[in-house]
Specification:
The complex is a heterodimer of chains A (325) and B (241).
Chain A: E1 2-4, H1 30-41, E2 49-52, H2 61-73, E3 77-82, H3 90-103, E4 105-111, H4 122-134, E5 138-145, H5 151-155, H6 160-163, E6 167-172, H7 178-182, E7 206-208, E8 212-214, E9 229-230, H8 236-243, H9 247-255, H10 261-266, H11 280-288, H12 291-324
Parallel strand pairs in A: 1-2, 1-7, 2-3, 3-4, 4-5, 5-6
Antiparallel strand pairs in A: 7-8, 8-9
Helix pairs in contact in A: 1-2, 2-3, 3-4
Chain B: E1 6-9, H1 31-36, E2 45-49, H2 57-69, E3 73-78, H3 86-99, E4 103-109, H4 110-115, H5 118-131, E5 136-141, H6 147-160, E6 163-169, E7 174-177, E8 192-196, E9 201-206, E10 212-218, H7 224-227
Parallel strand pairs in B: 1-2, 1-8, 2-3, 3-4, 4-5, 5-6, 7-10
Antiparallel strand pairs in B: 8-9, 9-10
The chains are: A alpha/beta (325), B alpha/beta (241).
Chain lengths: 325, 241
């Protein structure tokens, strides 16, 4: 379960698909997320990991701590994503991390790359790594890359003492959100096979500050048409149960966004399909941010539902007959 | 749960090791022992390698199948030296992942990275991607991160856009032998893995606060489940929190 309590961040990276920054402020709603955690703890097939994302969660330390404690109490393991800005003030940072570890924090995903380094120095990142290591927290370095800013650029300045024991995950910048205008087009990794694949391994339950629930945190949370429902109008367990019957989601999960291409081609919207994508998340967000595409897909879903219902109805006499035989 | 996972030397699966020495026994006979000890493991994960899982593919396939059949997840470690043929690598990875392999990790150090042909690296990366697993690289460095690692990462990124790297500083493990009646310190709270050596020795290995390797017994004397029974090692089991 991914919790996005705010898009407020202390920095505004050029590559940020979510458009987070100092000007976008949504204060953390602790009672709302406590309720989400309680509801989620009762969903049987949900892996019990609560991942705090943003925005920058450490800007709201007291709220973060309270929610970490609450999630732990309800059986969740805890991870947090951060840019590590707090690594420059080692004394207070040590105390903060220590409190979070006592509350149940086990893993931190530290974002560092050429884009974050425009705001957060390598020294600060090193400080954050040292503090986390001393506290026994598992660290994943999250590095976004482009053709110009490759992974080695992000980790070259870190020494073996910093990198030892870390998992380092490099992934391409996706041309959505702020990145679309702030990262030059020629820098993106794009390929004809970018749209191939399905998102069965990317699924999670992402809950945004506005109550909207999404099936992943890899871009769907930015696209209203991919919302599974809103917790302000429907309980979380019902949203999850309904998702199991969501044809759009099923198709994305099992066949991927490229499976919608023939539907768009048939509807005369072939021009909406790009020849190249960075990855399936790029293809998905690009397609479903387009109202025309959404309208065609919705019609297709309606027809698919009608067909399956009709199929069921034709079987009913047989079922009735079999039951009464 | 006392241990993270179990690591098995693939040389154990043949009677004669790569260096010509006789191996203790065929490791298929270990599997019932692993199954019997499953409650001792936090993750039901069997590391097969620890340096080279490939080479005898037919045997590897059977190991994977057997490990999976006892409810454990196989993870393979490889030097990449056998990945000279792209189609063969792809079909092997495809089959292994369908049989239940969760990860195939390319394990390198400076020497291994410098001697790894580029096409082997590309075959590994593409076979991983086509099989739906991430191309994981475990790099063990002596005292500095060498330039070859950065070059290798750039090649992987150019090929598939994604990279997944684990960096470890090489450490010389402090060796000790478990004496009956004593206590393995930290068991139940520190991260231990069970290591089965090709010669039949069973070790506990830890990496936190300095690597430590404790020889806790030999398969010739006792079945695996008895050797690694936490109560034999002097502790009352504690849950890892």
């Amino acid at each position: 379960m991914v919790l996005i309590p705010s898009d407020h961040c202390n920095i505004s990276c050029r590559h940020c698909g979510s458009g987070c920054g100092p000007t976008s402020k949504h204060p953390w709603n602790v009672p709302f997320y406590k309720k989400c955690i309680e509801d989620a703890s009762r969903i049987p097939n949900l892996a019990k990991n609560a991942h705090f994302a943003g925005g920058e969660p450490f800007l709201y330390f007291q709220q973060l701590l309270e929610l970490v404690q609450h999630a732990r109490k309800h059986g969740f393991s805890i991870s947090i994503v951060t840019n590590g800005f707090w690594g420059s003030n080692s004394e207070s940072a040590k105390d903060h991390i220590s409190c979070l570890v006592d509350a149940g924090l086990s893993r931190v995903e530290l974002s560092t790359d050429s884009f974050h380094k425009e705001f957060i120095t390598t020294q600060t990142v090193k400080g954050a790594i040292r503090i986390l290591k001393a506290a026994g927290v598992d660290i994943v370095l999250r590095v976004v890359t482009t053709r110009k800013h490759m992974i080695d650029e992000a980790i070259r300045d870190l020494g073996l003492e910093d990198l030892d024991g870390l998992e380092i995950v490099g992934s391409p910048v996706v041309p959505v959100g702020r990145a679309l205008s702030a990262v030059p087009e020629e820098e993106y990794y794009l390929s004809q096979s970018g749209s191939i694949g399905a998102c069965s391994t990317l699924l999670n339950l992402t809950i945004r500050w506005d109550g909207n629930v999404f099936p992943c945190c890899a871009g769907s949370e930015l696209i209203p048409s991919l919302s599974l429902g809103n917790t302000n109008s429907m309980p979380l367990n019902i949203i999850v149960r309904n998702a199991e019957w969501n044809i759009l989601l099923k198709k994305l999960v099992s066949q991927g966004p490229a499976s919608f291409f023939p539907i768009l081609q048939q509807a005369g919207l072939a021009h909406k399909i790009s020849p190249q994508y960075t990855n399936i998340c790029h293809a998905c967000t690009r397609l479903f941010a387009d109202p025309e595409v959404v309208s065609v897909v919705r019609s297709w879903i309606l027809i698919a539902q009608q067909k399956s219902l009709a199929g069921l109805l034709t079987k009913l006499p047989y079922v009735y007959h079999e039951r009464n035989r | 749960m006392a241990y993270d996972c179990i690591s098995i030397n693939t040389a154990s699966f043949s009677k004669i090791g790569r260096d010509g020495t006789e191996c203790y026994e065929d490791v298929f006979s270990l599997l019932p022992g692993i199954k019997a000890a499953e409650e001792y493991f936090l993750f039901r994960l069997v590391d097969i390698g620890p340096f080279e899982a490939f080479g005898e593919y037919q045997i590897l396939r059977e190991i994977v199948r057997s490990v999976k059949s006892i409810g454990f997840i196989p993870r393979l470690l490889t030097s990449g030296r056998h990945f000279n043929d792209p189609m063969k690598t792809k079909s092997q990875f495809f089959e292994l992942t369908r049989l239940g392999v969760a990860k195939i990790v390319l394990r390198l150090d400076k020497v291994g990275a410098e001697s790894l042909p580029k096409d082997h690296l590309f075959n590994f990366v593409n076979a991983c991607a086509d099989s739906g697993i991430s191309p994981d690289i475990l790099f063990e460095a002596d005292n500095l991160v060498p330039e070859i690692l950065f070059q290798l990462l750039r090649l992987v990124e150019e090929e598939r856009f994604y990279t997944n790297l684990y960096v470890r500083a090489k450490t010389k493990a402090k060796q000790s032998r478990f004496a009956l009646g004593s206590v393995v310190e930290g068991l139940g709270s520190r991260a231990f893995r069970v290591v089965v050596r090709a010669d039949g020795r069973v070790l506990l290995r830890t990496h936190d606060k300095g690597a430590e390797e404790i020889d806790i017994g030999h398969l010739r004397d006792s079945p695996l489940q008895n050797i690694i029974n936490p109560s034999r090692l002097g502790i009352v089991r504690k849950e890892v929190t």
